[in-house]
Design a protein that fits this description.
8 helices; 60% helix; two-stranded antiparallel ribbon; 1% strand; 283 residues; mainly alpha; 2 strands
Protein backbone atom coordinates (compact mmCIF):
# COMPACT_ATOMS: atom_id res chain seq x y z
CA UNK A 1 0.00 0.00 0.00
CA UNK A 2 1.38 3.43 -0.89
CA UNK A 3 0.63 6.88 0.44
CA UNK A 4 1.91 9.74 -1.73
CA UNK A 5 2.69 11.86 1.36
CA UNK A 6 4.08 9.21 3.72
CA UNK A 7 5.64 6.62 1.36
CA UNK A 8 5.13 2.90 1.30
CA UNK A 9 5.14 0.35 4.12
CA UNK A 10 6.15 -3.30 4.03
CA UNK A 11 3.15 -4.17 6.18
CA UNK A 12 0.74 -2.53 3.83
CA UNK A 13 -0.09 0.27 6.25
CA UNK A 14 0.79 3.88 5.67
CA UNK A 15 3.81 5.09 7.69
CA UNK A 16 3.34 7.97 10.11
CA UNK A 17 6.82 9.30 9.31
CA UNK A 18 7.63 11.65 6.41
CA UNK A 19 9.00 9.86 3.39
CA UNK A 20 12.60 11.01 3.93
CA UNK A 21 12.67 10.84 7.76
CA UNK A 22 14.35 7.43 7.86
CA UNK A 23 16.95 8.14 5.25
CA UNK A 24 19.46 10.88 4.48
CA UNK A 25 18.24 14.03 2.78
CA UNK A 26 18.58 13.69 -1.01
CA UNK A 27 21.09 16.51 -1.28
CA UNK A 28 23.24 15.30 1.67
CA UNK A 29 26.21 13.26 0.56
CA UNK A 30 27.75 10.44 2.56
CA UNK A 31 30.72 12.69 3.33
CA UNK A 32 28.42 15.41 4.69
CA UNK A 33 26.67 12.92 6.91
CA UNK A 34 29.95 11.55 8.21
CA UNK A 35 31.25 15.08 8.92
CA UNK A 36 28.07 16.00 10.80
CA UNK A 37 28.29 12.84 12.92
CA UNK A 38 31.94 13.53 13.72
CA UNK A 39 31.18 17.09 14.84
CA UNK A 40 28.34 15.90 17.08
CA UNK A 41 30.50 13.20 18.64
CA UNK A 42 33.29 15.71 19.16
CA UNK A 43 30.99 18.19 20.89
CA UNK A 44 29.66 15.50 23.18
CA UNK A 45 33.21 14.44 24.03
CA UNK A 46 34.19 18.00 24.93
CA UNK A 47 31.11 18.43 27.13
CA UNK A 48 31.86 15.14 28.87
CA UNK A 49 35.48 16.17 29.40
CA UNK A 50 34.46 19.49 30.95
CA UNK A 51 31.93 17.76 33.22
CA UNK A 52 34.53 15.20 34.33
CA UNK A 53 37.00 17.99 35.01
CA UNK A 54 34.48 19.91 37.10
CA UNK A 55 33.62 16.81 39.16
CA UNK A 56 37.29 16.10 39.76
CA UNK A 57 37.94 19.72 40.71
CA UNK A 58 35.05 19.72 43.18
CA UNK A 59 36.31 16.46 44.69
CA UNK A 60 39.87 17.71 45.10
CA UNK A 61 38.88 21.23 46.11
CA UNK A 62 36.20 20.32 48.64
CA UNK A 63 38.52 20.29 51.63
CA UNK A 64 40.32 23.46 50.56
CA UNK A 65 36.95 25.13 49.87
CA UNK A 66 35.71 24.41 53.39
CA UNK A 67 38.92 25.79 54.84
CA UNK A 68 38.56 28.91 52.69
CA UNK A 69 35.00 29.49 53.87
CA UNK A 70 36.12 29.09 57.48
CA UNK A 71 38.89 31.61 56.88
CA UNK A 72 36.43 34.13 55.40
CA UNK A 73 34.07 33.63 58.34
CA UNK A 74 36.87 34.35 60.80
CA UNK A 75 37.91 37.45 58.87
CA UNK A 76 34.34 38.80 58.85
CA UNK A 77 34.11 38.28 62.61
CA UNK A 78 37.43 40.09 63.10
CA UNK A 79 36.57 42.93 60.72
CA UNK A 80 33.01 43.62 61.90
CA UNK A 81 34.07 45.85 64.86
CA UNK A 82 36.33 47.84 62.49
CA UNK A 83 33.46 49.00 60.28
CA UNK A 84 32.75 52.72 60.90
CA UNK A 85 29.07 53.36 61.69
CA UNK A 86 27.29 56.73 61.83
CA UNK A 87 24.90 57.21 64.73
CA UNK A 88 21.45 58.74 64.30
CA UNK A 89 22.55 62.25 65.29
CA UNK A 90 25.31 62.22 62.68
CA UNK A 91 22.99 60.86 59.98
CA UNK A 92 20.36 63.53 60.66
CA UNK A 93 23.01 66.25 60.38
CA UNK A 94 24.27 64.84 57.10
CA UNK A 95 20.76 64.46 55.66
CA UNK A 96 18.76 67.33 57.17
CA UNK A 97 15.00 67.49 56.69
CA UNK A 98 14.53 63.79 55.97
CA UNK A 99 12.20 61.49 57.92
CA UNK A 100 13.10 57.90 58.88
CA UNK A 101 11.91 56.27 55.65
CA UNK A 102 13.52 58.90 53.42
CA UNK A 103 16.78 58.61 55.34
CA UNK A 104 16.67 54.82 55.13
CA UNK A 105 16.11 55.09 51.36
CA UNK A 106 19.23 57.26 51.09
CA UNK A 107 21.29 54.74 53.03
CA UNK A 108 20.10 51.82 50.91
CA UNK A 109 20.82 53.70 47.71
CA UNK A 110 24.34 54.56 48.83
CA UNK A 111 25.07 50.99 49.94
CA UNK A 112 23.72 49.55 46.70
CA UNK A 113 26.02 51.86 44.74
CA UNK A 114 28.99 50.83 46.88
CA UNK A 115 28.34 47.10 46.55
CA UNK A 116 27.85 47.43 42.80
CA UNK A 117 31.25 49.15 42.59
CA UNK A 118 32.82 46.16 44.34
CA UNK A 119 31.09 43.78 41.91
CA UNK A 120 32.17 45.81 38.88
CA UNK A 121 35.79 45.82 40.01
CA UNK A 122 35.88 42.08 40.58
CA UNK A 123 34.01 41.34 37.36
CA UNK A 124 36.47 43.44 35.36
CA UNK A 125 39.45 41.71 36.97
CA UNK A 126 37.94 38.33 36.05
CA UNK A 127 38.14 39.28 32.38
CA UNK A 128 41.91 39.11 32.69
CA UNK A 129 43.42 35.69 31.82
CA UNK A 130 44.78 35.01 35.30
CA UNK A 131 42.82 31.97 36.60
CA UNK A 132 44.92 31.54 39.79
CA UNK A 133 43.80 35.00 40.95
CA UNK A 134 40.10 34.20 40.74
CA UNK A 135 39.64 32.64 44.20
CA UNK A 136 41.21 35.74 45.75
CA UNK A 137 38.91 37.94 43.68
CA UNK A 138 35.88 36.00 44.90
CA UNK A 139 37.01 36.30 48.52
CA UNK A 140 37.60 40.03 48.03
CA UNK A 141 34.13 40.52 46.60
CA UNK A 142 32.34 38.67 49.39
CA UNK A 143 34.33 40.46 52.09
CA UNK A 144 33.95 43.86 50.46
CA UNK A 145 30.21 43.57 49.94
CA UNK A 146 29.73 42.16 53.45
CA UNK A 147 31.43 45.25 54.91
CA UNK A 148 29.12 47.54 52.91
CA UNK A 149 26.04 45.62 54.02
CA UNK A 150 27.09 45.41 57.68
CA UNK A 151 27.53 49.19 57.75
CA UNK A 152 24.09 49.57 56.16
CA UNK A 153 22.49 47.19 58.67
CA UNK A 154 24.02 49.05 61.62
CA UNK A 155 22.87 52.45 60.36
CA UNK A 156 19.37 51.18 59.57
CA UNK A 157 19.11 50.06 63.19
CA UNK A 158 20.04 53.61 64.21
CA UNK A 159 17.41 55.12 61.92
CA UNK A 160 14.63 52.89 63.25
CA UNK A 161 15.62 53.43 66.89
CA UNK A 162 16.80 49.86 67.39
CA UNK A 163 20.42 50.15 68.52
CA UNK A 164 21.42 46.94 70.35
CA UNK A 165 22.82 47.18 73.87
CA UNK A 166 26.46 46.49 74.59
CA UNK A 167 29.87 47.70 73.57
CA UNK A 168 31.30 48.03 70.07
CA UNK A 169 32.23 44.36 69.73
CA UNK A 170 28.89 43.13 71.05
CA UNK A 171 26.89 45.37 68.72
CA UNK A 172 29.08 44.35 65.78
CA UNK A 173 28.39 40.72 66.57
CA UNK A 174 24.66 41.43 66.68
CA UNK A 175 24.85 43.08 63.25
CA UNK A 176 26.87 40.17 61.88
CA UNK A 177 24.16 37.81 63.15
CA UNK A 178 21.59 40.04 61.44
CA UNK A 179 23.55 39.74 58.17
CA UNK A 180 23.77 35.96 58.35
CA UNK A 181 20.07 35.53 59.21
CA UNK A 182 18.90 38.35 56.90
CA UNK A 183 16.67 39.84 59.58
CA UNK A 184 16.72 42.75 62.01
CA UNK A 185 18.06 42.48 65.54
CA UNK A 186 15.33 42.18 68.16
CA UNK A 187 16.68 44.43 70.92
CA UNK A 188 14.03 43.07 73.29
CA UNK A 189 15.74 39.66 73.07
CA UNK A 190 19.45 40.45 73.30
CA UNK A 191 21.90 37.71 72.42
CA UNK A 192 24.96 37.48 74.62
CA UNK A 193 28.35 37.79 73.00
CA UNK A 194 29.33 34.24 73.89
CA UNK A 195 26.14 32.79 72.44
CA UNK A 196 26.38 34.91 69.30
CA UNK A 197 29.92 33.75 68.64
CA UNK A 198 29.03 30.14 69.37
CA UNK A 199 28.77 27.23 67.01
CA UNK A 200 25.32 28.08 65.63
CA UNK A 201 26.28 31.63 64.65
CA UNK A 202 29.46 30.46 62.92
CA UNK A 203 27.57 27.76 61.05
CA UNK A 204 25.05 30.33 59.85
CA UNK A 205 27.88 32.64 58.82
CA UNK A 206 29.57 29.89 56.80
CA UNK A 207 26.23 29.08 55.13
CA UNK A 208 25.71 32.73 54.19
CA UNK A 209 29.23 32.92 52.76
CA UNK A 210 28.60 29.75 50.72
CA UNK A 211 25.34 31.23 49.42
CA UNK A 212 27.16 34.38 48.37
CA UNK A 213 29.90 32.34 46.70
CA UNK A 214 27.37 30.40 44.63
CA UNK A 215 25.59 33.62 43.62
CA UNK A 216 28.82 35.41 42.75
CA UNK A 217 30.57 32.63 40.83
CA UNK A 218 29.13 33.75 37.45
CA UNK A 219 30.89 37.10 37.94
CA UNK A 220 34.21 35.27 37.60
CA UNK A 221 33.54 33.61 34.24
CA UNK A 222 35.65 35.39 31.62
CA UNK A 223 33.97 36.46 28.39
CA UNK A 224 30.54 35.49 29.73
CA UNK A 225 29.48 37.98 32.38
CA UNK A 226 32.07 40.50 33.50
CA UNK A 227 31.86 43.85 35.23
CA UNK A 228 28.38 45.02 34.25
CA UNK A 229 26.53 41.95 35.49
CA UNK A 230 28.70 41.72 38.62
CA UNK A 231 27.63 45.23 39.50
CA UNK A 232 23.94 44.54 38.83
CA UNK A 233 23.93 41.32 40.89
CA UNK A 234 25.51 42.95 43.94
CA UNK A 235 23.22 45.98 43.73
CA UNK A 236 20.17 43.71 43.57
CA UNK A 237 21.30 41.52 46.47
CA UNK A 238 22.07 44.49 48.72
CA UNK A 239 18.66 46.01 48.07
CA UNK A 240 16.96 42.69 48.70
CA UNK A 241 18.77 42.27 52.03
CA UNK A 242 17.91 45.84 53.03
CA UNK A 243 14.23 45.27 52.29
CA UNK A 244 14.16 42.26 54.63
CA UNK A 245 15.95 44.13 57.42
CA UNK A 246 13.70 47.19 57.10
CA UNK A 247 10.55 45.04 57.19
CA UNK A 248 11.67 43.60 60.52
CA UNK A 249 12.75 46.93 61.99
CA UNK A 250 9.49 48.70 61.09
CA UNK A 251 7.61 46.28 63.35
CA UNK A 252 9.63 47.49 66.37
CA UNK A 253 10.39 51.05 65.25
CA UNK A 254 10.68 53.74 67.93
CA UNK A 255 9.80 57.29 66.78
CA UNK A 256 12.69 59.73 66.98
CA UNK A 257 10.89 61.99 69.45
CA UNK A 258 10.37 59.01 71.76
CA UNK A 259 13.99 57.83 71.72
CA UNK A 260 16.06 58.27 74.88
CA UNK A 261 19.25 60.24 74.46
CA UNK A 262 21.93 57.78 73.35
CA UNK A 263 25.70 58.24 73.62
CA UNK A 264 27.66 58.71 70.38
CA UNK A 265 28.92 55.51 68.80
CA UNK A 266 32.53 54.57 69.37
CA UNK A 267 35.01 55.12 66.56
CA UNK A 268 37.01 51.97 65.70
CA UNK A 269 40.74 52.20 66.45
CA UNK A 270 41.61 50.82 63.00
CA UNK A 271 38.63 51.64 60.74
CA UNK A 272 38.03 49.33 57.81
CA UNK A 273 37.78 50.91 54.39
CA UNK A 274 34.21 50.26 53.25
CA UNK A 275 33.20 50.25 49.60
CA UNK A 276 36.41 48.85 48.16
CA UNK A 277 38.52 45.74 48.35
CA UNK A 278 39.86 45.16 51.89
CA UNK A 279 43.62 45.63 52.15
CA UNK A 280 43.90 42.25 53.85
CA UNK A 281 42.78 40.62 50.60
CA UNK A 282 44.89 42.63 48.20
CA UNK A 283 42.82 45.81 47.89
Amino acid sequence: MRDDERGSSTTGAASLEPANALEAAPDETAADKASRTTRTDGSRSRVAAVADGMREGVRKGGRAGKAGIGYLADRLIENAPRIPVRDLATLRKQFPGLGPEQLADKLVSGAANASSTVGAGVGAAAMMPVPPAMPAELAAEITGVAAVELKLIAELHEVYGQRPDGNLKQRSTAYLTSWTQERGVDVAKPTTLNAALGGQMKRELRQQIMKRMVRNLPNLMPFMVGAAVGAVMNRRDTKKLAAKIREDLRKRQVPWDALPELPPLETPDDPLRVGGRPKELGG
